[in-house]
Amino acid sequence: MLDALTALTRGTRLVYSRGLRRFVFLPIVVNLLVYTAMLWYVLGHFGGWLEGWMAMVPGWLEWLSWLIWPLFVVSLVLIVFFTFTLVTHLIAAPFYGFLAARVELEATGRPPLDDRGLAKTAMDAMGRELVKLGYILPRMALLFVLSWIPVLNLVAPLLWAAFSAWIMAITYLDYPMDNNKVSFADMRRRLKARWWPTLTYGGWVTLITWIPLANLFLLPGAVAAAVLMWERHYRGIEIGAAHGGPPQAR
């Protein structure tokens, strides 16, 4: 049984093997540039953002400031994390898609079903990222609003954590599925059908993303792990009718 942690371990070793490590360089450089720019911006504005949030706490809740303050900090950090993640993957998507295709060929001995050329694959990858943004941003905005509502915001960090695991799964597992002509809607149905591998994989990737600097070198391994997870858990699912029939294992 291939679990998420095993897939990440095997995937990281795989992308740094002799045949694949040259495909990792560009994604790392892109992530490093975005990481540096975002870190510089956040460090310069984080204090002001936090003060603005705390100023909105009503007077009758001031006695809970000892609890609200750390919750605001956690929520703000999570929002910054999501913003960084979305920007990074929007830029790096073409490189990750190509890396996933090479990993699939290396790991399974057969290429993905995708027969598009390199240029079209890169352009379509950007379009796919915009589709992901259309799915993620409304839900992210809803959680953001919830984070501002007194009392309800006490559960916001937990919701952000669960949401981050789901979104990381969508972000990375979509690379091999896109390469194999799985639509975004069908991809989400496959992930729901295997919800436990999906959330454990997304949770581990979320933890990796939080490791400063090291995450730049570990995230390509998450792409390879997504290919291994696709092969083991999702490829054999036969999606029901277009009207939303239940997925079935083949």
Automatic annotation (TrEMBL):
Taxonomy, superkingdom: Bacteria
Pfam family, one: EI24
Coarse class of the protein's main subcellular location: membrane
Chain ranges passing through the membrane: 23-43, 63-92, 195-219
Keyword Membrane: yes
Topology in the lipid bilayer: Multi-pass membrane protein
Localisation per UniProt entry: Cell inner membrane; Membrane
UniProtKB keywords: Amino-acid biosynthesis, Cell inner membrane, Cell membrane, Cysteine biosynthesis, Membrane, Sulfate transport, Transmembrane, Transmembrane helix, Transport
Job description of the protein: High affinity, high specificity proton-dependent sulfate transporter, which mediates sulfate uptake. Provides the sulfur source for the cysteine synthesis pathway.
Family: Belongs to the CysZ family.
HAMAP family: CysZ (MF_00468)
Protein name: Sulfate transporter CysZ
Annotated organism of origin: Halomonas rhizosphaerae
